[in-house]
């Protein structure tokens, strides 16, 4: 149930002393004294309001048109905060004359302007103050969540002071904060030089207020990690930009949640249409630039901005306000508004909100709300009551198309007329024409941008913990709609949801501040529901928890039975429809105005595509009929050709896109139904990229072929070298070249003799202990060596007698013939395991059977030559020949014959 608190005494009771009506809080900036007040109904706890707490220094003199500086501390004094501060200078107030105003706005908007105007009369440049409303806590140990209201409607007028937050703070048990920020030319004087842009001073005021609030809110019992922002109109647009601004996340986000009401930075009116032109007009009318400079401003915008700013700082605030009020933007657009400055707004909102670069934007929980006709105030009172003629309808649509689009205006105009014509009744009445204009302005300026914002925030391409909710507030306040009972317009109008969210229907008439009035019992029940949703979202990010909706009235009981789902593709873009049907005021629906949203977000951007690159389109093609006749348009139009080519630096590159999670099949099947804009320039760029890729690939292929053929030509040379070497070994072993002469650098050169053995242990080694390796039928053993005039006499050995044995021995099944010379066998014939000499087909460099291995084995037996081994050892022949008796199992080898006598070492 909703919170209930009953006071023992009313606030205005004489039992309360002056001291009891005051509250003192010590903050990091200093001591503040607030006042305890009643929220306007006795069943809610009282609220302490601290009005006029400064958060920024007065932006006057040299600080005008610059970023705000923090307010100085008052640690050695006490500040009374019981009265509202002045409002910021209003440079864009609507028309106040009733006769003229009724032709430009609705009677509801005119009445609201005149109700808020008395609270805006006191204006000053020293206006950077905040107001804090702190309720008496029902749970003293719980820190309170914080909601900051960013007032809106338009960038040129408004203030935070006129909106009372006591009822919402008391009922929702949250701290409510309202702030002022600089407006119009004082807060959004955009100017760009060749390297940078400036002009978002009003946004810097909001950031400064949030920074100070995080430093002092703990002293008021607030939770600095649970701050939310809520705004409507232009205030909602500023909040959406702050959601994606890196300046709000230096170490920890300055706010955690956001509520946008009929406003987003994706709206056509959200960003300044021509900031350079508006700056130049203001400077020229203040005589800070010469007429010649205004005609040719290139030099000015390449380095002369500071001198112009100094000149404008010397003027009075009244003079700047008077001049700024004479500068009008084209209809439906903005002259003094946010710009891309690279700091607060680092890039275009479409990029900042996109799934690829919108991480900061999607970190914040988001709730979006809209009225049935948020563009209601843009039509004159007479058209709203009696309908609109076809000629007036055409003028308004022509003005909308001319000011919002640059290319293919005739095609866009025809598409709009076709989309919003009731073909079941082509001869539409004046009221039907009025309704179509209301729908066109609502969808193009508010609904389609809001849905695009919701879809960007609820994108499932990245893993995140933020939540997205959407509601359509369609409740009609009967006292407000009584004036137009016969107009035929059903639903809510511009700003109708604001008093319900702030709790105005619950305030007593004798304590009402007259900003909103005329509510009945159903309105009060709906206001409790809306405040419960809002307070829950501020506390948890979910409008349904932690507090359940009470059942005090029938209206509340209906809402208590309805579950509000999140807005995403999985839930088919579900939203909560509030108060459209009096009998069933709470309904969950899907795809709000989806057909019209698809038209404005899909088809119109495709029609507006610039065209195929390289194809020249005459400029007249993009002009509407009677383009230069002012009477064929409504309001102010964008000038033909625009301004001179003023140098505006491009926005900085977006951050590196994060790793995306591939959407599931179900998500893919339920994706956005809007069409993707296509242009011939995109195709041209794709063709260029494809051609470049093919060319690079062909080049790399040709390079690889060249390298392959080069390596292939090198491979046969190496192969022939290997063949030649193998042939040399085969010829050598087969006796075709008996006289082999080794060169010093030859790979076959004999190795130097090994050193003599250090012990007699190696003398016992036998030749057969050396293993024999065979490769492809060739025994890897020792080749015979020649020294000096030594020569070899060989027989012929049949190659088919070579077989591979388990112990790598050769069998003697073949018939081999060799010549015997007179010599004494060095080994006994009974020694069957020993082999003498170097075998045929064996490399001399073989580490196991070559000359080194035989030399080591022979050297170990050198000391026993003289005495003669009785066990079949080696002996020296009569002619000094060294011989080995071959084992029976070995292949017969040739005898070694030398005409000279050599020692064993000399032989090697």
Keywords:
single chain, 908 residues, alpha/beta, Rossmann fold, 13-stranded mixed β-sheet, two-stranded antiparallel ribbon, 31% helix, disordered N terminus, disordered C terminus
Structure notes:
Belongs to the type-B carboxylesterase/lipase family. InterPro entries: AB_hydrolase_fold (IPR029058), CarbesteraseB (IPR002018), Neuroligin/BSAL (IPR051093). Residues 749-758 have a biased composition (Pro residues). Keywords: Membrane, Transmembrane, Transmembrane helix. Residues 740-762, 783-828 are annotated as: Disordered. This protein is α/β, with parallel strands linked by helices and 908 residues long. Among the domains are: 22-188 and 198-274 and 329-387 and 429-471 and 595-609 and 643-669, Rossmann fold; 738-908, no CATH class. Strands 1, 2, 3, 4, 5, 6, 7, 10, 11, 12, 13, 14 and 15 form a 13-stranded mixed β-sheet that branches. The chain has a two-stranded antiparallel ribbon with strand order 8-9. Strands 16-17 form a two-stranded antiparallel ribbon. Strand 14 (574-578) and strand 15 form a beta hairpin. Helix 14 (390-404) crosses helix 15 (409-419) and helix 19 packs parallel to helix 20 (554-560).
Topology:
Elements: E1 22-26, E2 30-37, E3 47-54, E4 74-80, H1 98-104, H2 107-116, E5 129-135, E6 144-150, H3 166-172, E7 175-179, H4 184-187, E8 191-192, E9 197-198, H5 201-216, E10 222-232, H6 234-243, E11 257-261, H7 275-285, H8 291-295, H9 305-313, H10 317-325, H11 349-352, H12 359-362, E12 365-371, H13 381-386, H14 390-404, H15 409-419, H16 430-457, E13 468-473, H17 478-481, H18 497-502, H19 521-540, H20 554-560, E14 574-578, E15 586-590, H21 594-607, H22 665-669, H23 680-734, E16 773-775, E17 778-780, E18 791-792, H24 851-860, E19 896-897, H25 904-907
Parallel strand pairs: 2-4, 6-7, 6-10, 10-11, 11-12, 12-13, 13-14
Antiparallel strand pairs: 1-2, 2-3, 3-5, 5-7, 8-9, 14-15, 16-17, 18-19
């Amino acid at each position: 149930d909703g919170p209930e608190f009953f006071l023992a005494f009313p606030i205005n009771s004489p039992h309360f002393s002056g001291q009891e009506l005051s509250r003192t809080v010590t903050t990091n900036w200093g001591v503040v004294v607030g006042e305890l007040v009643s929220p306007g109904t006795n069943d809610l706890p009282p609220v302490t309001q601290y009005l006029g707490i400064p958060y920024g220094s007065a932006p006057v003199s040299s600080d005008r048109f610059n970023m705000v500086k923090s307010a100085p501390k008052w640690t050695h004094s006490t500040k009374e905060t019981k009265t509202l501060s002045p409002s910021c200078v209003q440079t864009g107030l609507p028309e106040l004359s009733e006769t003229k105003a009724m032709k430009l706005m609705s009677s509801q908007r005119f009445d609201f302007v005149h109700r808020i105007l008395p609270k805006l009369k006191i204006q000053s440049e020293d206006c950077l103050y905040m107001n804090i409303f702190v309720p008496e806590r029902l749970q003293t140990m719980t820190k309170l969540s914080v909601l900051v209201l960013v007032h809106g409607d338009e960038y040129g007028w408004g203030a935070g002071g006129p909106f009372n937050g006591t009822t919402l703070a008391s009922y929702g048990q949250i701290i409510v904060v309202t702030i002022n920020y600089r407006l119009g030319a004082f807060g959004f004087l955009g100017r760009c030089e060749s390297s940078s842009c400036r002009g978002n001073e009003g946004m810097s005021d909001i950031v400064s207020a949030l920074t100070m609030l995080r430093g002092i809110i703990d002293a008021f019992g607030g939770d600095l990690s649970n701050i939310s922002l809520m705004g409507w109109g232009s205030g909602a647009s500023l909040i959406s930009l702050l959601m994606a601004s890196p300046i709000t996340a230096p170490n920890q986000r300055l706010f955690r949640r956001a509520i946008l009401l009929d406003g987003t930075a994706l709206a056509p009116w959200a960003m300044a249409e021509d900031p350079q032109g508006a700056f130049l007009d203001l400077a020229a009318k203040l005589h800070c630039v010469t007429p010649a400079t205004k005609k040719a401003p290139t030099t000015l915008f390449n380095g002369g901005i500071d001198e112009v700013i100094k000149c404008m700082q010397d003027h009075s605030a009244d003079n700047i306000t008077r001049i700024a009020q004479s500068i009008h933007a084209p209809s439906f657009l903005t002259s003094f508004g946010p710009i891309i400055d690279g700091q607060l707004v680092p890039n275009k909102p479409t990029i900042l909100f996109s799934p690829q670069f919108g991480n900061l934007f999607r970190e914040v929980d988001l709730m979006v709300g809209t009225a049935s006709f948020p563009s209601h105030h843009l039509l004159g009172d007479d058209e709203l009551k009696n309908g609109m003629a076809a000629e007036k309808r055409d003028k308004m649509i022509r003005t909308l198309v001319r000011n919002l689009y640059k290319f293919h205006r005739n095609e866009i105009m025809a598409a709009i007329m076709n989309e919003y014509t009731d073909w079941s009744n082509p001869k539409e009445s004046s009221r039907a024409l009025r309704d179509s204009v209301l729908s066109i302005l609502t969808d193009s300026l508010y609904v389609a941008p809001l849905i695009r914002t919701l879809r960007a925030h609820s994108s499932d391409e990245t893993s995140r913990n933020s939540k997205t909710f959407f509601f359509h507030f369609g409740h009609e306040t009967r006292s407000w709609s009584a004036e137009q009972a016969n107009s035929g317009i059903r639903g809510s109008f511009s700003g109708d949801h604001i008093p319900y969210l702030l709790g105005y229907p619950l305030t007593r008439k004798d304590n009402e501040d007259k900003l909103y009035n005329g509510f009945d019992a159903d309105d009060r029940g709906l206001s409790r529901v809306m405040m419960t949703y809002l307070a829950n979202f501020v506390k948890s990010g979910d409008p349904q928890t932690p507090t359940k909706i009470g059942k005090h009235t029938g209206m509340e009981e209906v809402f208590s039975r309805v579950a509000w789902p999140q807005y995403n593709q999985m839930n088919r873009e579900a939203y909560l429809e509030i108060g459209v049907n009096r009998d069933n005021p709470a309904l969950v629906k899907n795809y709000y105005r989806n057909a019209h949203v698809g038209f404005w977000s899909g088809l119109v951007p495709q029609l507006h595509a610039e065209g195929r690159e390289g194809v020249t389109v005459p400029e007249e093609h993009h002009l509407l009929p009677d383009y230069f006749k002012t009477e064929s348009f409504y309001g102010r139009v964008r000038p033909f050709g625009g301004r001179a080519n003023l140098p505006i630096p491009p926005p900085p590159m977006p951050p590196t896109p994060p790793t995306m999670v591939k959407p599931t099949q179900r998500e893919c099947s339920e994706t956005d139904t809007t069409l993707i804009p296509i242009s011939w320039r995109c195709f041209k760029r794709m063709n260029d990229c494809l051609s470049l890729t093919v060319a690079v690939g062909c080049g790399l292929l040709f390079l690889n072929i060249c390298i392959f053929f080069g390596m292939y030509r090198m491979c046969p040379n190496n192969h022939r070298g290997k063949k030649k070497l193998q042939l040399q070994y085969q010829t050598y072993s087969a006796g075709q070249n008996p006289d082999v002469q080794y060169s010093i650098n030859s790979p076959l050169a004999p190795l130097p003799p090994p050193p003599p053995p250090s012990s007699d242990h190696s003398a016992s080694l036998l030749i057969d202990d050396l293993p024999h390796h065979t490769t492809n039928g060739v025994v890897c053993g020792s080749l015979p060596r020649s020294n000096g005039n030594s020569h070899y006499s060989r027989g012929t050995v049949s190659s088919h007698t070579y077989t591979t044995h388990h112990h790598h021995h050769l069998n003697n099944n073949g018939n081999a013939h060799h010549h015997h010379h007179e010599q004494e066998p060095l080994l006994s014939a009974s020694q069957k395991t020993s082999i003498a000499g170097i075998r045929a087909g064996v490399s001399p460099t073989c580490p196991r059977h070559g000359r080194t291995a035989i030399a080591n084995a022979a050297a170990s037996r050198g000391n026993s030559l003289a005495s003669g081994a009785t066990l079949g050892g080696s002996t020296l022949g009569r002619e000094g020949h060294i011989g080995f008796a071959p084992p029976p199992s070995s292949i017969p080898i040739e005898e070694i014959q030398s005409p000279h006598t050599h020692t064993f070492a000399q032989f090697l």
